[in-house]
Amino acid sequence: MDKVRKNKTAIILFMLPAVVLFAGIIIVPIFMSGYFSLFKWDGMTEGAFIGLGNYVELFTSKTSGFPKTVQNALLLAVLSVFVQLPISLGLALLLAKGVKGEKFFMAVFFVPVLISTVVIGQLWMKIYNPQYGIINTALHAMGLGAYARTWLGEQETALFAVFVPILWQYVGYHMLLLYAGIKAIPTELKEAARIDGATEGQISRFVLIPMLKPVIRICVIFAVTGSLKAFDLIYVLTGGGPAHASEVPSTLMVSMIFGRNRYGFGSSIAMFIIFLCFFFAISIKKMFKTEVE
Amino acid sequence: MKRKLIGMALALVLAMGTLAGCGSKTETAEGNAGTAKGDTALTLWSIATESDSFNRAYTQAIADFEAANPGVKVVHETFENESYKTKIKSAVAANELPDLFYTWGGGFSKAFVESGKVLAIDGYFTDEYKAELPQAALSYATYDGKLYGSTYTTPVSALFYNRKMFEENGIPVPTTWDEWMAANRAFLDKGITPIGVSVKDTWVLAMTHDALTLKSAGPEKVAAALTEGSQSYDDPDFLASAGKIKELVDMGAFISGATGLSNDEASALFYNGTVPMYLSGSWMGGSIVTDAPNPEDFDVIPVPVLSGNAQSTDFMGGAVDTLMVAAGTKNPDLAGKAVFELTRGISKYAYLDGAGIAAWEKNYDESGINPITKKLADYAAEATSFTMWFDTLMDADDAGEYLALLQGLYVGNISPEEFVKAMAAQLDK
What we know:
Order of helices and strands of chain A: HHEEHHHHHHHHHHHH
Strand order of the largest sheet of chain B: 2-1-3-12-6
Structural class of chain A: mainly alpha
Number of strands of chain A: 2
Shape of chain A: flat
Order of helices and strands of chain B: HEHEHEHHEEEEHHEHHHHEHEEEHHEHHH
Largest sheet of chain A: 2 strands, antiparallel
Distance between the termini of chain A: 38 Å
Largest interface: A-B, 39 and 46 residues
Helix content of chain A: over 70%
CATH class of chain A: Mainly Alpha
Helix content of chain B: 40-55%
Radius of gyration of chain B: 25 Å
Number of helices of chain A: 14
Strand order of the largest sheet of chain A: 1-2
Radius of gyration of chain A: 23 Å
CATH class of the largest domain in chain B: Alpha Beta
Number of strands of chain B: 13
Oligomer: heterodimer
CATH architecture of the largest domain in chain B: 3-Layer(aba) Sandwich
CATH architecture of chain A: Orthogonal Bundle
Shape of chain B: globular
Distance between the termini of chain B: 69 Å
CATH superfamily of chain A: MetI-like
Strand content of chain B: 5-15%
Number of helices of chain B: 17
């Protein structure tokens, strides 16, 4: 076995399929997007090289509203980290303690992750429907009809109306990661703390959460990068509208490329999303590392 | 040593397997198109899915064509409308177009033609066809003086209304803008929201705005501003129609929540008698028959005129549904003939089904057609001009900006003045 491991030809041969796939599906397209982003190109005819023109337009064009979409995506990232993750952590701690029907609740919270996003989108569209949606119906029933609105159709509410299902959908996902993390912590630690007189809250705060840090780090990275490339639910629920109110970089990219034949400009948005994802993933890793030391 | 060899051999097999997996894909795709020995197969892509009202017409036209041309088989593949827009663009880019394909004429297909992937079919447009298909119907399939496609239907947009609701409330059917506004006010006084629209599916709002713009600026001025660039969009006539949209929004004439409703949801409110008016394309005539509980309550009128620049016989619409031939087809002569034969057949069968207004001459019995479609066909036959819907007429980038600006105008982010200025800036780009 050692012989094989030292043999360079074998290493190369065994890695080749994975490397070819990885390069072909991820690395090459990234570089191609980078290349296309330097062109004014409609995807079909010959493109014209315009250097960094697309990137300049990203930040100067008022009508495409790109800075606003980045702001929306960052807001979603903040909400994911400071609202979604605490909820997931709370649920994970609660379930890991051994609530009655632990398995059942696990399944219930995890179901939204399994359901197709388009189905969830249709579901929430019915919930938000101004005529017969459950939210407006409930408001009218409680005599609060004045607060009923077109949740997905008004600029003030559309952004938060699409964020709620996104946050809700992935609570179960993070909960499962954290739950598994908690279960992996040796029970002796908890027992030792209990013997020393720690309450349940203190055990969670001073024993479990510090031990969970690597898992939490992963969750934060997933939550932030997931928010930056959030697309499907927004596309189904509002398509980025009304008047760009709920637009994020990825919906803008799709409407630019496929709606308006601006492959070059769309590619520059793609490059920016990739840059942001790498930037945050690396800086989050750094942040957690310095804290550990 | 032996083990090492086996390991390397296995790795090689694996690697080959992956590569072979990539390679064989195209082969099977081509294999699918093949048919029985000796048959020539033409592949046709369209959006006439089984639930589409044109599906039956396509099927019948294909059957007729196959019967008239023994040994020829048309393989009809259908796709959903929105996803097809993406599919056809990537097929052009990847050079994977089928022999015949459905597309939208005007600005949408401009890039296809410019890329050289579409076959010019002037040579196949024989006198027989010329006698039955008016040249005017082909204006959106003509690029730089050359013909690249043929059409089968001439849709127009018009104001559909619920006659029963007008009668019950004693409100006269409007023929001028002032009468229309009076009718809107009368409905609002009775607590009825007068007009259905979808802003989420912005093309519905665009249809309303397009019609008002045409009736305000007139067909020549619209064409000059949108396609020729010889007229600025920043003009009082264009400002007028944008202002009318704002006026209608401000008076509450459009259904509440239109920004969050899709066309299906909004038009359902028209079919079930919640709102009395809906501005849409002639296909709504067919939908009323299938979707409304009382189709006989409904009727249609041309959009009222706003100024002396336009007449009531100027219509938004025109033959944009186009079949084209790929430049890469192996049987250009057969495909060139098929494109006219098929569109002629679809024109007839779709009209008889009430699915669309025939673009080709109607040399057959048309007595069984539903009255709304018949009326629309008469409008189209007497039309003095056709102007394509703006989002099809303009190229994709301008169209996208137009729809985004319209949303902004509707929700009040921008004023009508800012709207026409932004449109002028986009069109000048």
